[in-house]
Amino acid sequence: QVQLVESGGGLVQAGGSLRLSCAASGIFSSINTMGWYRQAPGKQRELVAVITSGGSTNYADSVKGRFFIYKDNSKNTAYLQMDSLKFEDTGVYYCNADGWTASPRYLELWGQGTLVTVSS
Fold it and tell me: What is the mean pLDDT of the chain?
């Protein structure tokens, strides 16, 4: 299946910032939600942040006040601005999007994952 195009991970010191991007151009005719999940080694994947088609957002308690999700509707791209990064933010971040294609058909897709490593 078609994967979302995800980028922005890397190495950063604690207290630093990164911005993740997730592009869904050419896939959906109408997007319902976009967001990120993350998975640390040996741990379950958890929701980080989600933004709906109407612009409402939801964040994990652990990232509230530090992470900000927003989108560019003209590009069907969502961004996750991550500030004041902590060691415990380390993990693989997976973009997720769901919506409808022109068929029309409902789809839920994942990005390839991008590694975020925060050094202490």
Answer: 94
